[in-house]
# Entry
Amino acid sequence: MTKKGLVERTTVTSGRRELKEIIETCNAISERRFNPFFLDVELGVETLRKYYQKWETFDDHCLDAHTLNRLSEVVRLQNIQLKFQASALYSDPKFLTQKLERMSEKRLAEVFLQSWHPLAELEQLTKEALNDSLTYWSALLPINERWLRKAPPEKVNPQSADSSTLDSLGITGEQFNKQLVNLWNELHKSFQTAQRPVDYWTFIRKTSYQETVQRAYRVSFLITYGYAKLQSDTEKLTLVPISEPTGKATAGISFPIPITSE
# Structure
């Protein structure tokens, strides 16, 4: 092979290698691994022009066409990014730097004042504000005279409640005992129907907050006197009626259950 032929063969081999490198870069851009502007498309086109006349085989021309296709895809991605940046009012930092360097000090000051939106405000005392303050404090009575205007609430000592008062409130007495029995029967029926422990909140909850608190109060008596058992796990509270209640208070621990108005 002559020296000229060797040079041409080397040039063709180099051209194929450069086109493959361009294709790999374009593929990386399509896969979002590089910014679309990472590749200089104009330089890629110049590379195609450089080697176009030197292709010898059908595969070389296919490689050339494939390279041109991938460059077209990069141009499309660049166009999409430019449209997005324009819609988001994006400005290139380098372009802005060059534009600021060319602006005069006067123009820079004007732009600053037009775009300035202070986040803090400093208020200054004026003569009118001082006069208003002086008038207010002069008309204000001393603190001891102001307290005299507020009469202290009348003290009421706590009193004890007799049995008749508790009966009228439904807390003790025959009526209260009857309510406990009815509530125990209701719990026993719910347990037999579901064949599993009854959810505590479902059982005590009623339409009004007052009714819910009253049922919770009576359930506490059922638990204390051995008519029902309260079970607690990490998720919920359940009630299980006892078929043969003892009717006697059992020793145990206090288990407060807050009831919100919601």
About this structure: The first helix runs from residue 3 to 30. Residues 168-241 form a domain with the Arc Repressor Mutant, subunit A fold (CATH 1.10.10.580).
